[in-house]
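Example for tutorial group B:
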């Protein structure tokens, strides 16, 4: 019996994710360099790296569209179609968050209070470190779909690692907020080394903290989708 064309099989959709995930990891590396340049007050380097982050995000968007266009309705897929596209969306939002960070930082010349600088860099490191762990899960996913119990168990362990990184980033972000709100005040103005720090600077730093934490949030969301994909 002839199989209708729209019920055709194609190569594993997971293969198409490889260049996409490579762009995401590249974006994380450049983002970290950009934020450090911002903290160091190196505006020229920050501008160049910020532009590169935005370029990587644009290139990843093109790859995302190619993936979607290569999987028309009727294509047989080893996982639920909606879940697969939801995974792509969360992966895309990781790079969107990276772009959000550099664009937001560019609005105000660099001020990261020394009282939270160490914690802020730790937040950046922990939040972005969730991404390569997530990439390990995506690499393993094709072998965990189906009846390979050993790979499923290993994948679940990796997913737990991603969730742990998200939890750690939340704790650091909360610590930053608490530290900022506990700084000495004079007439409702935060005072650092005898000088007042304007509310706009504080707001800018708090929003940046939120944007950095969003990377780990989206990594965890992607990991949760993978967990549903392999659910028994």
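The residue assignment follows.
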């Amino acid at each position: 019996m002839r199989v209708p064309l729209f019920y055709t099989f194609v190569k594993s959709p997971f293969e198409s994710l490889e260049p996409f995930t490579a762009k995401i990891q590249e974006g994380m590396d450049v983002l970290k360099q950009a934020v450090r340049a911002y903290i160091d007050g190196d505006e020229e380097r920050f501008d160049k790296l910020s532009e590169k982050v935005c370029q990587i995000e644009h290139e990843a968007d093109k790859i995302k569209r190619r993936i979607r266009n290569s999987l028309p309705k009727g294509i047989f897929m080893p996982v639920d179609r909606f879940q697969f596209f939801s995974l792509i969306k969360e992966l895309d939002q990781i790079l969107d968050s990276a772009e959000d960070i550099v664009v937001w930082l560019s609005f105000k010349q660099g001020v990261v209070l020394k009282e939270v600088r160490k914690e802020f860099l730790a937040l950046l490191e922990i939040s972005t470190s969730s991404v390569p762990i997530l990439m390990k899960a995506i690499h393993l996913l094709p072998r965990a779909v189906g009846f390979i119990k050993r790979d499923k168990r290993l994948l679940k362990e990796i997913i737990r690692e991603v969730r742990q990184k998200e939890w750690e980033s939340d704790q650091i972000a909360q610590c930053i907020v608490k530290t900022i709100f506990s700084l000495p005040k004079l007439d409702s103005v935060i005072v650092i080394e005898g000088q007042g720090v304007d509310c706009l600077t504080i707001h800018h730093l708090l929003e940046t903290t939120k944007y950095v934490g969003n990377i780990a949030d989206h990594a965890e969301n992607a990991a949760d989708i993978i967990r549903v994909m392999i659910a028994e």
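The chain has one domain: 5-229. Compare this with the pattern of hydrophobic and polar residues in the output above.
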